């Protein structure tokens, strides 16, 4: 005989399932609310980050635009001022050019204008320094070298051919030397900024070495960088002549292989490492720059015009009766794959190649996982 459940037990079971259903429904709604809140919060955070990113990009774009506009105005102003001085010199028939004055044999009439010409060269040096500071991708080497040549001419200026130095000539020599030292310091500032950028940004390696040459002797060391066959040929008034010797394979016994002519370069204060470099026989790209030059003759004649930090080296040189010059050379070894500012067509192709390689690597990584 079967016993039917009572109405009371059925009601209790129904109440239990109703409570469970209500709880599940409530939990489901809470879960949806929580997930919705998380998604909304994530979307809001993403929106905030995207807004901040857009604001940063717009700010950087506006900054770059204003900076480019300012640089363009400065470039225009500098060149107008630079060529205005040159045009005014050409427009005045009574005033000869800087080189004409320096090389003239007129004993008295033109000597009075030389200090004024040195003032013009001083302004041109300042313009070149401003250009090198604000337009690092611009090669201002021709301007700097031309100014150096003119100032060097004035250091040996004579008011009359064959005449001994007068007090006025000596004052011109001193002023021209001081201006040339200032020009070379400005050039060293530009080259050192480029070198630091290459070392810090492009991860280039740098090494410095001192080379000494005494009167009548050979440079020491003759091979300053042991990793390359680079021979110092001569030190002369802020210039270092260097021969890059070819690497000869010992297994090659032919005369043609053993008589490959070396290539010659001249290292000066005006070598821009980020714009100019040489290919070593090893295949490395190396930029050379002259960081310091101490001359026995300059220390003898113009000690007061030399930088205080170099004067102790002058005192050491003057104590040596062999009349030696010292040059400090820095070599910046560019990394493989380095793209120079002038390599614009190659730069685009290289960037596309690297992006393609990165996309391929990422695709293979995703497939592997």
Descriptive report:
With 369 residues, the chain is an alpha+beta fold. The protein folds into two domains: 108 residues, no CATH class; 156 residues, no CATH class. The strands form two sheets. Strands 1-7-6-5 form a four-stranded antiparallel beta sheet. A three-stranded antiparallel beta sheet has the order 2-3-4, with no helix packed on it. Strand 2 and strand 3 form a beta hairpin. Helix 1 runs antiparallel to helix 3 and helix 3 runs parallel beside helix 5. The longest helix has 85 residues. It is elongated and about 130 Å long. The protein starts with 6 loop residues before the first helix and ends with a helix.
Give the structure's gist in a few sentences.
The chain is of the alpha+beta class and 369 residues long. It has helices at residues 7-91, 98-103, 114-134, 141-155, 167-201, 255-258, 296-301, 311-319, 344-368; strands at 205-214, 230-236, 239-244, 263-267, 278-279, 285-294, 324-333. A 4-stranded antiparallel β-sheet has the order 1-7-6-5. Strands 2-3-4 form a 3-stranded antiparallel β-sheet, with no helix packed on it.
Distance from N terminus to C terminus (CA atoms, Å) equals: 66 Å
Low-confidence stretches: 89-112
Shape annotation: elongated
Which structural class matches the secondary elements?
Answer: alpha+beta
The number of helical runs is 9
Across the major sheet, the strand order is: 1-7-6-5
For the largest beta-sheet, the strand count, sense and barrel status come to:
4 strands, antiparallel
How many domains? The number is 2
Level of helix content?
55-70%
What's the count of strands?
7
Order of helix and strand elements from N to C terminus = HHHHHEEEHEEEHHEH
DSSP strand (E) fraction? 5-15%
- Rg estimate, integer Å: 36 Å
Average pLDDT: 78
């Amino acid at each position: 005989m079967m016993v039917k459940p009572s109405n009371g037990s059925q009601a209790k079971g129904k109440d239990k399932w109703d409570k469970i259903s209500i709880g599940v429904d409530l939990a489901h709604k809470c879960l949806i609310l929580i997930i919705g809140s998380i998604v909304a919060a994530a979307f809001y955070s993403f929106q905030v980050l995207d807004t901040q990113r857009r604001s940063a990009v717009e700010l950087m774009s506006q900054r770059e635009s204003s900076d480019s506009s300012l640089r363009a105005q400065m470039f225009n102003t500098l060149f107008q001022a630079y060529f205005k001085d040159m045009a005014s010199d050409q427009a005045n028939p009574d005033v000869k050019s800087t080189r004409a004055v320096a090389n003239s044999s007129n004993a008295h009439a033109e000597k009075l204008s030389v200090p004024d010409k040195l003032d013009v060269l001083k302004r041109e040096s300042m313009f070149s320094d401003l250009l090198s500071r604000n337009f690092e991708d611009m090669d201002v080497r021709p301007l700097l070298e031309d100014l150096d040549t003119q100032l060097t001419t004035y250091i040996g200026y004579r008011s009359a051919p064959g005449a001994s130095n007068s007090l006025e000539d000596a004052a011109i020599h001193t002023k021209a030397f001081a201006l040339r030292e200032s020009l070379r310091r400005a050039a060293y500032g530009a080259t050192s900024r480029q070198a630091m950028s290459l070392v810090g940004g492009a991860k280039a390696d740098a090494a410095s070495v001192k080379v000494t040459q005494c009167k009548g002797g050979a440079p020491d060391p003759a091979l300053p960088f042991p990793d390359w066959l680079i021979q110092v040929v001569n030190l002369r008034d802020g210039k270092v002549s260097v021969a890059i010797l070819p690497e000869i394979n010992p297994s090659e016994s032919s005369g043609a292989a053993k008589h490959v002519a070396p290539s010659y370069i001249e290292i000066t204060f005006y070598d821009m490492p980020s714009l100019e470099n040489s290919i070593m026989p090893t295949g490395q790209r190396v930029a050379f720059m002259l960081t310091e030059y101490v001359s026995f003759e300059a220390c003898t004649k113009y000690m007061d015009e030399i930088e205080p930090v170099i004067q102790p080296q002058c005192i050491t040189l003057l104590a040596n009766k062999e009349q030696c010059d010292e040059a400090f050379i820095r070599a910046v070894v560019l990394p493989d794959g380095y793209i120079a500012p002038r390599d614009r067509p190659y730069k685009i192709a290289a960037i596309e190649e690297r992006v393609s390689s990165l996309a391929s690597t990422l695709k293979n990584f995703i497939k592997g996982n």
